Amino acid sequence: MNLYIVTGTTRGLGEALALRIARDADNELIALARAPDAPVPGGARLEVDLADPVALAAACDRIEQRIRGKRYAKAVLVNNAGVVAPVAPLEAADPAELARNLAVNLVAPMLLMGRFLRMTESAAMLRRIINISSGAGRRPIFGWSAYCAAKAGLDMASRVVALESQSRRRPVEVASLAPGVIDTAMQGVVRSAAPEDFADVERFRKMKADGALRSPDDVAADILRLEAEGRLKGEGVLDLREL
Ligand SMILES: NC(=O)c1ccc[n+]([C@@H]2O[C@H](COP(=O)([O-])OP(=O)(O)OC[C@H]3O[C@@H](n4cnc5c(N)ncnc54)[C@H](OP(=O)(O)O)[C@@H]3O)[C@@H](O)[C@H]2O)c1
Question: Is 209 helix (H, G, I), strand (E, B) or coil?
Fold first, then answer.
């Protein structure tokens, strides 16, 4: 069996990843999402608000209970959940939204990576972490200070975990992966911003009008294929468009 832990599976890329993971009967899925606990295709969904570190710790305890005593050929953590808001120049950004952005996009993935490394130490022969990052973590975008900073932080945290992994008894493959532009609700948020809050808004509206956005399912398929081929590793920071 393979274990997949995926965050943010209610829609967008996370939903597409979860549905594809569930197609393989050899996979066990644990989905972490802001939706009630429920069985889902391939496994179970556990309800958690990733912005709440206490709730996240409790969810990790529950994952640990679920996998206790099991042995997996492979365990994969996909930190997918994300938020782009606040979209505004820093001085106009809502402070609570800014803190929430960093909590969901950076703090939660780091906490989850730490717990994943501990809880799967002897539970899986092969371990992989895929952090869904963004090109926005690698270049500044007007109005996206929180999102850019969080994704840049996620890239660097991934690089550190990749470095630390080199001295592990069993190495862990780590990738902070920019997925390209995907046709999800997050892009809708971006396109609805006022030009004074987001200077590139017209470019993003044009990309949608030109059909330049990829479907979440196509992107999920590419990510899982590259993962299965063992190509999501290295020094930690990758771009799907270059693989
Ligand atoms: N779309 C793009 O063009 C693009 C480009 C580069 C990178 N990315 C990255 O790709 C990933 C997926 O984004 P997407 O485009 O699929 O976005 P999306 O459609 O907005 O979906 C985001 C997912 O994250 C979940 N989420 C947000 N805040 C959460 C919280 N506090 N607790 C639990 N779950 C939470 C959402 O759940 P709820 O339904 O509960 O809100 C939803 O399932 C993100 O990391 C994003 O930064 C996207």
Answer: helix
